[in-house]
Specification:
This is HD domain-containing protein. This protein is about 45% helix and about 5% strand. The chain is mainly alpha-helical and about 325 residues long. The strands form two sheets. Strands 1-2-5 form a three-stranded mixed beta sheet. Strands 3-6-4 form a three-stranded antiparallel beta sheet, covered by helices on one side. It is globular, with a radius of gyration of 20 Å.
Length: about 325
């Protein structure tokens, strides 16, 4: 049988050697499903940022394997950390009433995954405990982890906003079990990417795309959501909504998919439309090698302040 693992790769980071058990994990139904889930949520329908959770997962795994080549637990957790995501990722999670962290725990316990972990003397509970702790993937309350580092690199690259390839920046980055470490210049560059990413995915039109999709789901399912919906792919969910018997749902999907330029958003809240907005932003930073905190640096403070200023409320008007 010809072995070809080129589909377990991505272009941003240097290649990493796959272990046989990692190939098995990547080929489980849970991880393969991530290829059909947009990392950027409904924003992928109207923006150039169209990579899936699968590419992101490979990226996080590559970073983890590069910095922690002998840590099988961290490498396994990197492959499995996103398997609980719903269609269109965060866009519909609250609307459908699910928690992707809880779903991840449930799926990791499945024998399809457990049997592979057991081959390297790991258990699903060990992976779950790792994912629920502060570590190199998640970071700490203040320090950026590898999960978000990949997101900031990948999203800005896809949107054309990056002027240095991530594989060229990695030589200036290190990582401890607390999270990402870099010299001050590189740390500030990473935070510039974080700001660019926030400015895109928290822009009014991308937020509105998520809100329109959530509204269409609410109207279509009308409280009759069952557990099977959580394991749908983006395509399967779109198919359901596009074929809905609810005319308002069809109108919303037509607006979102075919005429996003006609999405009507206003910053003044009148109560006549559908409200949406930003209540939370990501404010973790890399550790700086000289021990200085980035939020104590003048430029670092400025970047964090700009991210904080993106907390705004909007109103969507559907005519």
């Amino acid at each position: 049988m010809l072995e070809n693992y080129s589909y377990i790769n991505e272009p941003l980071y240097p290649e990493v050697e796959l272990n046989e058990w990692e190939v098995d994990l990547f080929n489980t139904s849970y991880v393969r499903r991530l290829k059909q889930l947009s990392h950027f949520g409904a924003g992928s329908l109207i923006s150039p940022v169209v990579h899936s959770r699968y590419e992101h997962t490979i990226g996080v795994w590559k970073l983890t394997a590069s910095f922690f080549p002998n840590d099988n637990l961290a490498r396994a957790a990197a492959i499995l950390h996103d398997i609980g995501h719903l269609p269109f990722s965060h866009s519909v999670e609250r609307t459908l009433g699910f928690n992707h962290h809880e779903l991840t725990e449930k799926y990791v316990k499945d024998w399809e995954i457990e049997s592979i972990l057991n081959k390297i003397n790991l258990t699903s509970l060990e992976v779950i405990d790792f994912l629920n702790s502060q570590n190199q993937l998640t970071g700490t309350d203040e320090i950026m982890g590898l999960d978000h580092l990949d997101s900031f690199f990948r999203d800005t690259y896809m949107n054309g906003g990056i002027d240095r390839l991530p594989k060229d920046v990695l030589s200036s980055i290190n990582c401890s079990k607390k999270g990402v470490i870099a010299d001050c210049e590189t740390a500030l560059y990473i935070m510039e990417l974080a700001l660019m990413d926030h400015e895109l995915f928290l822009s009014p039109h991308l937020l509105a795309a998520d809100r329109i999709l959530a509204e269409a789901i609410s109207l279509n399912f009308e409280g009759t959501v069952d557990s099977t919906i959580a394991f749908l792919t983006d395509y399967e969910l779109l198919n359901i909504l596009n074929n809905s018997n609810n005319l308002i749902v069809k109108k919303l999907m037509n607006l979102l998919i075919r005429f996003p330029g006609k999405i009507n958003i206003q910053s003044s809240i009148t109560g006549d439309g559908i409200s949406f907005g930003v209540r939370k932003v990501y404010n973790k930073t890399p550790m700086v090698t000289d021990g200085k905190k980035l939020n104590e640096d003048v430029k670092g403070k400025e970047l964090l302040a700009k991210i904080g200023e993106l907390k705004k409320e909007y109103e969507l008007i559907i005519k």
